[in-house]
Amino acid sequence: MREGFAGSLLPLFAVFAPLSLLSFGGSNSVIADIAHQSVAVQHWTSEREFADLFALSRAAPGPGSMLAALIGWKLGGLAGALVATVSFYGPAAIVLYFAAKLWGRWRGSAWHTAVERGMAPIAAGLFLSGGIAVLRVAPAGLTAWVAAGAAAAALLYWPKLHPLPLLVVSGGIFGLVDWLGLVS
Amino acid sequence: MAIGQSLPGANGVKLSVLIGRHLRGGIGAFAAPLAFLSGPFVIILVVGAIYGRIANYSPLHAVLDGVAAAVVGLTLSTGISAVARGAGDWLAVAISAVTVLCVGILGWPMLPVILVLAPVSIGLMLVRARTA
């Protein structure tokens, strides 16, 4: 068990705990690093597995940020899933617990406003970077870029569109094309 | 309650910590996010276990490629609308662009990028507020 801890559980903590503290704007802002770490640095997943786990984590009901749990599960079963999840959510929750009250007290001060205005464009940039990072390791290649672009355009054009039908339609089209053997 | 984006964390978890603390203090702040995450955690383990059984079935991967692409589209549209909201503010757009360049295109790790960009961005916003 000790070998298991050093082998997979400790690296899970070492990757996900810092990312917890960097998830400005929500857990989706650190997708770029999760993709990079999982595939290229730690070799936790192949590009194929990462695309699968990423899709599953967002298609499953829930807050849609259970990617850490899935990666942890793949590496170390239930213990891995628990360690990854606690590492990914715990540190930010602890910071929030101690900082929120203080943070609220400074509301209206010049630097409070500056922090909010300064962090918002970084969070937006991290979201876009996450999308790009996932596409760069996507096994579907150019097709994935086109489909993601089309989905983004649809959502920007119809902001009230629920994303779920979009996931189903996109998954269905890719599945059908594969089944018909249209692409090798 | 607006924590916004100035403190890190998943938004649902942040909200549950604050609501839990508001209702039951420290115990509540500990229990509420656990309760919030436990359902999705069990679901995702079931999903993962099913995936483990059928991962060799190749058409599954094509379907998941399609789902992943649409999810990326969702993430991109969120990012694009966030940038568009500040489109009149060239400084905010420039900071977003530098973030995308460093993390998305050059693939640099987030930690050093944020450690440099966050103080610069906050400092610039502060300076601008003072000089405006």
Summarize the structure in words.
The complex is a heterodimer of chains A (184) and B (132). Helix content of chain A is 78%, strand content 0%. Chain A is mainly alpha-helical. Chain B is flat and about 60 Å long. The model of chain B has no long low-confidence stretch (mean pLDDT 91). Chain B is an all-alpha fold. In chain B, helix 3 runs antiparallel to helix 4.
Sheet with the most strands, sense and barrel status of chain B: none
User: What's the oligomerization state?
Assistant: heterodimer
Number of helices of chain B: 4
End-to-end separation of chain A in angstroms reads 43 Å
Q: Based on CA inertia axes, which overall geometry of chain A fits?
A: globular
- Round the mean pLDDT of chain B to the nearest integer and report it: 91
Query: How many whole angstroms does the radius of gyration of chain B measure?
Result: 20 Å
The stretches of 5 or more residues of chain A where confidence is low (pLDDT under 50) are: none
Strand content of chain B: under 5%
Largest protein interface, residues of each chain:
A-B, 105 and 84 residues
Topology (elements, then pairings):
The complex is a heterodimer of chains A (184) and B (132).
Chain A: H1 2-22, H2 31-41, H3 47-59, H4 67-105, H5 110-136, H6 142-157, H7 163-179
Chain B: H1 11-54, H2 58-85, H3 90-105, H4 110-131
What's the short story on this structure?
Chain A has 184 residues and is mainly alpha-helical. Chain A has 7 helices and no strands. The two termini of chain B are 28 Å apart.
Based on the model shown, name its key terms:
A: 184 residues; mainly alpha; 0% strand; B: 132 residues; 4 helices
